Write the structure tokens for this entry.
Amino acid sequence: MTKNINTKCIHSGWVPKNKEPRQLPIYQSTTFKFDSSLDMAKCFDLEDDAYFYTRLQNPTNDAVAAKIADLEGGVAAILTSSGQAATFFSLINICKAGDHIISSSAIYGGSYNLIAHTLKDFGIDSTFVEPDCSPEELQAAFTDKTRVVFGETLANPALKVLDIETFAKVAHQNNVPLIVDNTFPTPIKCRPIEWGADIVVHSTTKYMDGHATSVGGVVVDSGNFDWQKHSDLFPDLTKPAETYHGSVFTDLFGKAAYIGKMTTTLMRDLGSIPSPQNSFLLNLGLETLHLRVQRHCENANKVANYLKDHEKISWIKYPDLMGDEDYDLAKKYLPDGSSGVVIFGVKGGRDAATKFMDNLELASIATHVADAKTCVLHPASTTHRQMNDSELEAAGVKPDLIRFSVGIEDVDDIIADLSQALAKI
Ligand SMILES: *Cc1c(COP(=O)(O)O)cnc(C)c1O
């Protein structure tokens, strides 16, 4: 039976058999017991897929990964200890020293630092392009070393919308996959795989967890990219791997080769797994994702409409607002609402912004976004502090930008809070 995404939020992943626990059990165990050494040896040879050590796989983590794979329309997924780990793993699973990445410039600050600086130190080069660039501009960024294209459906915090279909098309013309960070819309509002993305990553820390309890990430594979067809570009997936006694990942794992390789090599060598306890909390969050995201979007829409005409607001960006520079792209990729995040500037610049934020009572100042409670942040002095002015501009982060993450409180109370804080500047 094909289920609606609202039902998948609740029922996918953990499917209890007769007399089993109704709620996903927490397998808080580092290891698993075996009756014979030979039994365990088979696991190390990938001849048996039994659980043996939680750094590689754990039943609680796997059930939650399977739910998210189902929500995104992928064939396999892996949970990571943070969103940053998910992005890092998604890239280095197919890129190594000497390779080249093309990325949208409008991405999360941490992803920008990772690609522009840390991966560069690893010998992986990168070129940044606009999220709404033309196919020709994107094509011009390719080199014979390019192995992947990266972008963010709805950029945190710039709220620029990625032209996923164009990015996927040009990536595929160049025989490489497209990876999309879909953290802000969540699969409730956009499923990038349906627009041609090959891999989807998330910081599950945000709406998926939704209650600000657990840092985490996930990588989802669509199973659509034909690694074997482009074997010359991705030999680590398609040729015998020394690291696994000459096994070939595309033979071993078929359509799930990308996640299979990530589990058996990157997780083995680098770690970065979530604790089963955190995965349990993430799963609780996922059970109400469809309800919460809907309310976040409704509330944010009302907040955006209230702010857009306010005399103390100098500018506002919310892609669902008619006239927004990303309105057309949002109508295409996020027709049912973008997210609960609204960005704006207040008249009076930085000082007024700080005063306004300090005067908020319901909304708290937090290095967070996308959880149940309304919160507010000034990225230029916090999350994007390491960027210079031109990098900030390329990322769409104005120095006076206030990121307002609309929670699921009663929207009248959120607007009343904004109103009293704006009255004081
Ligand atoms: C927060 C965030 C990340 C990083 O995730 P962590 O869980 O904080 O490591 C990556 N991408 C986006 C879009 C984010 O909002």
About this structure: The mean pLDDT is 95. The chain is about 40% helix and 15% strand.
